[in-house]
Design goal:
Helix 7 packs parallel to helix 8. 59% of the residues lie in helices and 19% in strands. The strands form two sheets. A six-stranded antiparallel barrel has the order 1-8-12-10-9-13. Strands 5-4-2-7 form a four-stranded antiparallel sheet, with no helix packed on it. The protein contains ten helices and 13 strands. Mean pLDDT is 84; it is low at 1-27.
Length: 505
């Protein structure tokens, strides 16, 4: 029909021109025909949409645990910061109390260092110096030359008596048996010392392995929490900014390294524990074997003495041993050790007095201050973790869904409560492809209709266009938010709507 209309219009135009020419020659003037208006194309962009609250949130716990209380149910109106779900906090409260005690102890230590020693403490230290000095003087003056001469004479007399008795009978055999016994006793002491040292060394290594495991467990717990935060939120665990793939990989690698270190520390502790158990067993069996050899040497000596008809020989040997011991006590290693011990006690008391008078050094105070800061940070971390065991409403709204019951275990990052601010509605569409979004502008007028309310047609405006497109079944679509100019109390969350947006070229 359109080609025909155009053709007719063309004929009419030619005829008009001819008539006009004739009129110019002598005919009557003819009216100029009025052109038809151009057909305007519909510029509206139409898309499916849904009704959503002006604000909504799917809420999840940042830490896992057993739900102690679920304080809301679907349909409840909640206020901002109201507690919705509370986990069992008994263990975390104990951890906070422990951190508070650690902080109090660190602050007390710092205060004591800053205050310095009291007059009473200095007086006590001075008294200790005087006591140690007196003990040393007593030790040095406790033995006279007469005491030493008498002891030496007694020893020589005992040795002479023994030598006379040894000229007869089985003295040589008894002496040999005594030498073997002495050797076995010495071997026993040496074996006991060696095995005890080996056990002590194994115990030290095991304690070190325990400390390393504790350190690794702490580092793993921190790394695990940080990685779970990064994995679930894709944000920096403390600075809360969004991470790129490379940074996200770094947090994962840190977690993997902490896990590997933990497993290595566990294996090292198992090895150290086995070595310690073996050292303890070796000590028991080794000492028993050495004691058995001593018992055999003692029995051999008893046998040799039983074959001797001189009881005086044993008595003479005892006298020699007693006299030697007495002389050793007066001038030997024992007295030297006593003197050295008294001198060391005096030096220690004097050093302690000087330390108290000098007060704490700058490095000691700095170390104590650092310990206070560490304890404060640890307490803050424990308090934050305690706060994280309560799920609170981020804004005033209505509870739309509750997906947890008291007693259930809650996984971190799993949405358990959904709330929305139902005081006003907005319309949201994700149905606009890249071909349609280019003709949509913020502020553009919109006509909104609803499947459930066919008699309702609301005007509105485009208030927000998301810059990032999403791939939906092969099409790139964009999220657009529309605010109605007026509200209708019959609207409900997720109702289906249709929007017609005034497009622009």
């Amino acid at each position: 029909m359109k080609p025909i209309a155009l053709k007719v219009a063309g004929v009419a135009l030619v005829a008009g021109m001819a008539l006009t020419a004739c009129a110019g020659i002598g005919g009557a003037p003819q009216p100029t025909p009025t052109p038809e208006p151009a057909v305007q194309a519909d510029q509206r962009v139409v898309a499916e949409a849904r009704v959503v609250p002006v604000r909504s949130a799917a809420l999840a716990m940042t830490t896992g645990g057993d739900a102690l209380e679920v304080l809301v149910q679907e349909g409840d109106v909640v206020q901002a910061d109201q507690v919705l779900v509370r986990l069992d906090t008994r263990r975390q409260e104990a951890a906070v109390a422990q951190a508070e005690a650690d902080l109090a102890r660190a602050r007390a230590s710092l205060a004591k260092l800053r205050e310095g020693a009291t007059e009473e403490e200095i007086a006590v230290a001075e008294a200790q110096v005087q006591k140690a000095r007196a003990q040393l003087q007593q030790t040095l003056g406790g033995v006279t030359s007469s005491d030493l001469a008498a002891a030496e004479a007694r020893l020589q007399e005992a040795k002479a008596r023994l030598a006379e008795l040894q000229r007869s009978g089985r003295a040589d055999a008894i002496a040999a048996a005594e030498a073997r016994l002495a050797q076995q006793r010495a071997n026993l002491e040496a074996e006991r010392a060696r095995l005890s040292a080996a056990k002590t060394d194994a115990k030290v290594k095991m304690d070190q392995a325990v400390a390393e495991l504790t350190k690794a467990q702490s580092a793993y717990a921190v790394a695990l929490k940080e990685w779970e935060t990064v994995r679930d939120t894709n944000k920096h665990p403390t600075l809360n900014y969004r991470l790129g793939e490379a940074e996200r990989r770094q947090w994962y690698d840190k977690f993997v390294q902490a896990e590997a270190t933990l497993k290595g520390a566990e294996a090292a502790l198992n090895s150290a524990r086995l070595a310690y158990d073996a050292a303890r067993e070796a000590e028991v069996t080794g000492v028993q074997a050495a004691e058995q050899r001593v018992a055999e040497a003692e029995a051999a000596l008893r046998g040799e003495r039983a074959n001797s008809d001189s009881d005086e020989l044993a008595a003479a040997q005892a006298q020699v041993a007693d006299a030697q011991a007495q002389l050793d006590r007066l001038r030997g290693d024992e007295r030297s050790g006593t003197v050295a011990g008294a001198e060391a006690a005096l030096a220690e008391a004097e050093a302690n007095l000087a330390k108290l008078k000098a007060g704490a050094s700058a490095s000691q105070i700095a170390e104590a201050e650092a310990e206070v800061q560490r304890a404060e940070a640890a307490l803050q971390a424990q308090r934050v973790q305690l706060e994280d065991m309560e799920l609170r409403a981020p804004f005033t709204g209505v509870v739309a869904a509750v997906d947890v019951k008291a007693g259930e275990y809650i996984n971190p990052g799993t949405a358990i409560v959904q709330i929305g601010d139902l005081s006003a509605w907005q319309i949201e569409t994700t149905d606009l492809t890249e071909l349609g979004i280019v003709r949509v502008r913020e502020g553009a007028p919109v006509t909104i209709t609803f499947d459930a309310l066919p008699d309702v047609e609301l005007p509105g405006k485009v208030t927000r266009i998301r810059a990032l497109g999403e791939n939906r079944q092969g099409d790139i679509t964009y999220r657009v938010v529309i605010t109605p100019d007026q509200q209708d109390n019959r609207l409900r969350w997720n109702m289906t709507a249709s929007v017609a947006i005034e497009g622009q070229e």
